[in-house]
Sequence to fold (177 residues):
Amino acid sequence: GTRVRGLTSADSTRDFFLTGVPMDGFNTELVEISRGANAMLFGLGSPSGIVNTSLIKADLRRLKTQLQYRTDQYGSYRGSLDHNQVLLKDKLALRLATVYDKAYFKIEPSFNQTQRGYLTGTYRPFRDTQLRVSGEWGQINSNRPRTTPPTDNYTYWFELGRPVYDSRTGTTRLLGT
Fold:
């Protein structure tokens, strides 16, 4: 959850439609962050803000392929493919983007495994008409490390002088007084 104004988490949207799908760079073209009154203009009504992502689109004019691979010192690796194929120049194109991400952490046995795919198509039957279709599938499996420090409920009790609640009278008193 991204805090934009400190109130609560900002709404996560795709093309200004609420979504619960986590954002990933393999199929993201643009990220817009709006806060305050600007975020409320788009009909979602969140005073905390909005994080809007726009997904990649099939390009009708050029063939393009991008392949990425990266790794780190913990054995994590990530591979992604982004391929745009023009089927009929200025008329029909398809674009496929996939990612496989296996992340390991310093704290064992923590991991995060992501497998996702995205397919989109653009069709222009007439000069001023464009049809776009897209779909996404994926699976995320994880055992992530805890990021909160350990806490206890006793330190506060000792710092207050060991208060005791008396259920008969409904009062609190310090132990020993």
